[in-house]
Amino acid sequence: MSTNITPQHLEKIVPQAEDFLPLLGTDYVELYVGNAKQASYYYQTAWGFQLIAYAGLETGLKDRVSYVLRQDKITLVLTSPLQPDGDINNHINAHGDGVKVVALWVEDATKSYQETVKRGAESYMKPSIQEDEYGRVVFSGIHTYGETVHVFIERKNYTGVFLPGYKPVDKSYQTKTTGLKFIDHMVGNVGWNEMNKWCEFYAKVMGFAQLVSFDDKDISTEYTALMSKVMSNGNGRIKFPINEPAEGRKKSQIEEYIDFYNGAGVQHIALATDNIIETVSELQARGVEFLTIPASYYETVLERVGEIDEDLEPLKKLGILIDRDDEGYLLQIFTKPVLDRPTMFFEIIQRKGAQSFGKGNFKALFEAIEREQKERGTL
Ligand code: FE2
Question: 267 alpha carbon to ligand 1 midpoint, in Å?
Answer without folding.
Answer: 9
